[in-house]
Every structure is written in C-alpha cells, then in structure tokens.
Amino acid sequence: MRAAWTSYVAIGDSFTEGLDDLRDDGTPRGWADRVAERLAQNVPDFRYANLAVRGKLIDQIVADQVPIAEQLRPDLITFSAGGNDIIRPRCDPDSVAERCDAALARLVSTGADVVIFAGFDTRKVPVLSRLRGRIATFNELLRAIADKHGCRIVDLWAMAPLSDPRSWGRDRLHLTPDGHRRVSLRTLEVLGIPVTEDWREPLADPVQHPWLRRRQEDLDWTRNYLLPFLSKWARGHQTGDGFQPKRPELMPYIAENPPGGAATSRAVI
Fold first, then answer.
1. What is the DSSP letter of 218?
2. Most buried pick, 47, 70, 95, 129, via CB within 10 A?
3. HEC per residue, 175-204
C-alpha cells in the first residue's frame, strides 16, 4: 500500500455518482467525493476524477469508463459495477461477474490500487428482498475475483446500518446522505486512512408505523418508482441517457480549511 495516493478515479453508476447525497447547488456529492475530500488532506497535488453515470450497466461502464481510467493512470481506482444488471428481471450473476473480472484485470494492470464493492443486503427492502439470493451469489463471485487480482473489497453486505430502510431514499435504490457518509468511512477504513467517525454507529431507534401505513408506502413505491422503471426498461430507456460524468478528468483538489481543520475540500475548477 502506498504511503499516500496522489490521484484517484472513481468508476461506476449512480452509487458512485452520488445520487441522493446532494450539495447546496443540487449536484451530487456521494461517498466517492467524500473519500476524495479526505484523501486530499495534506496532499497538495491530489487529483480526482469521477466517471460514474447513473443507470449504467456493466458493459457500458467497461466500454465508456475503463478506457479513460487506463489513459489517466491514477494510483487509486474504485470500481463498482453490475448493480443495475443484477436488479433487472433477467440476469445471470456469473456472466456479470466474468465481465467484472475482465475489467479488473485491465485496471490492475495499470499499476493502480483497486477497490471494489460487494452488494447490499436487501433483506429488509420490500420487493428487492426477492433478489437477495442473486446479490449474495454475485458477492461471492466478486470476493473470489478480488482475491484473484489483489483488489481490496468494501463489504457493503456486512454494514448493518445500510440494511436499515432509513439509510435509503424514497426510491429505495439510492442511499441517503448518511448512507453515503457511512460508505465513505468504510472505504477509508479499507484503505487504512484514519477517520474520526464510526460507520458502525447504530441509527436511532426506529419509529414503529402501523402495518397499513407500511403497505401503503409499498404501494406508493411500486406505483411511483418500480413500475416506471420496468416500463422504461421494457422500452430500452435507461436512467443515465443524456447524462455525462460529473468529473471526467483528473482535477486538483485543495483543502478549504487549514491543517487540523474539518475534513472538507473543494475542487479547483
């Protein structure tokens, strides 16, 4: 492991883009930006690119983002892909894992340290809980791939706070700001970077809602999110159509606070 990383490229979909963790101007922040902000401390020439685009499938990520990362040649890469494939009605986890394997072989060959992510436990998420076995299978395949290529792995499945529905937004597909914060802390922990907060801190005791209200919430989610998603999928439309990466190039970061201040930073644009 390097003493300090000076360049970082994040590859992925909406999870890495940072949806539902918004800045004051409405742009997504997310766990990857939070990781970059921490890594930029005390590294004046630190540079960061985030190539992730919402809704992208594994083949699109490999075709559009992996070649850019190969060209940029950072010393740290995070790679999270396959989640949008796994939740689709028809999906073969083995096939998705094989494509991840090939992509990781290319990324590791650049000499970068590579971090990947095992999927979330959806046991408590209505409807998505039906995919729990498929996600678990994919996770085991990813662990074998990580071991094969010497990649670090962030085990999202084992992060108990993220199995709480309150860590998820109204669409039940994207993390809340607190969820992104916890993922950033866990990622930094995997990288061996000291942090002052603990991602394991439990959420407050939940407010118990009546059974009828919970079922109404499930119906609202199905009508407002699930059915539109399936309709768009059937017509070949994707969430990320028309969107571009928010940070397509390695750009410098500088700290907003003096040494010893809060762990925040901003991009020089």
1. H
2. 47
3. ECHHHHHHHHHHHHHHHCCCCCCCCCCCCC
Say which CATH number the domain at 263 has. Answer: 3.40.50.1110
* 204 falls within a domain: no
Q: Could you give the C-alpha distances from 183 to 94, 158, 238, in angstroms and in order?
A: 26, 11, 25
Residue ranges of alpha helices (H) inside 109-249 are: 132-149, 177-191, 211-221, 227-234
Return the number of other C-beta atoms located less than 10 Å from residue 7's C-beta.
20
Q: What is the identity of the amino acid at 247?
A: R
Torsion angle in degrees (nearest 10) through CA of 150, 197, 155, 188: -20
Residue 204 has a pLDDT of 83
Instruction: Determine the distance from the C-alpha atom of residue 250 to the mean position of all C-alpha atoms in its chain, rounded to a whole number.
Output: 19
For residues 102 and 90, what is the distance between their CA atoms, to the nearest angstrom?
Answer: 22
User: Which residues constitute the domain of residue 12?
Assistant: 7-198+211-267
The pLDDT tens digits for 104-120 are 999 999 999 999 999 99
Output the six-digit token pair for 132.
């729990």
Total domains, the chain: 1
Q: Which helix (H) or strand (E) holds 249?
A: strand 247-255
Neighbours of 143 (CB within 10 A): 15
Higher pLDDT, 247 or 87: 247
Contact 47, 253 (CB under 8 A): yes
- 143-189: pLDDT as tens digits: 999 999 999 999 999 999 998 888 988 887 889 999 999 999 999 99
Calculate mean pLDDT across residues 42-49: 92
Region 34-38: mean pLDDT is: 96
